[in-house]
Amino acid sequence: MSLKPPQEQNAAWDPPKRNGFTLMEMLVVLVVIGLIAAVAIPQITNLLGSAKTKAAKVQLDTLSASLRHYELDTGAFPTSEQGIEVLWSMTDPDPAWNGPYVRQERQLKDPWGFDFVYRSPAEDAPYELVTLGADNKEGGTGDDADLKAIP
Question: How would you describe this protein's topology in the membrane (predicted)?
Answer without folding.
Answer: Single-pass membrane protein
